[in-house]
Each structure stands twice: as C-alpha cells, then as structure tokens.
Amino acid sequence: MSHDKHPHGHPHHDHQEPKGPWWKHIHRDWRFWTGLIMMILALVAYVLSVDESLRPGGGVKAPVSAAP
pLDDT of 17-50, one tens digit each? Predict the structure, then answer.
C-alpha cells in the first residue's frame, strides 16, 4: 500500500473545511451558541441581583442616603 493514498494510517474524510474567515461560519458551531447563552444568563443573573450585593465582612450593603 502506498503512502500517497492513506498517509499515517488515517482514513480519508470527504468533508471540506469552511472557506473564508471564521466569523462568517461561527454561527454553525454549537460551542458558540452554548457560550453565548451562558454569557446572556450570567448577565441576566448579574442585573437581577444588583441589590443583593454583600460587603466583604458578610453583611448586607446599607443603602446610600442623599447628602444634604
């Protein structure tokens, strides 16, 4: 068997790599959508918990009053 047909014993795959820049094909990758959904969920959780922040000592942050 010649090395021209199957180099290093790897089978030949008939798929083609996407041509062009990666950002034009990224929307077809499941990792992109998983990461995007996780980032959106993290942002939503952050926005919804803005008033539930804690002080370094473990106490709840006191509301800031307006200066006279």
Answer: 667 787 778 888 899 999 999 999 999 998 888 7
Task: Compute the distance between CA of residue 22 and CA of residue 24 in angstroms, rounded to an integer.
Answer: 5
- For residue 6, give every residue at least 6 positions away whose Cβ sits within 8 Å of its Cβ, in sequence order, or none: 12
CA 21, CA 24: separation in Å to the nearest integer?
6
DSSP-based helix, strand, coil % in the chain, nearest 5: 45, 5, 50
Q: Where exactly are the structural domains of the chain?
A: 20-50
Q: What is the pTM of this model?
A: 0.47
Is residue 32 a contact partner of residue 26, using CB atoms and an 8 Å limit? Answer: yes
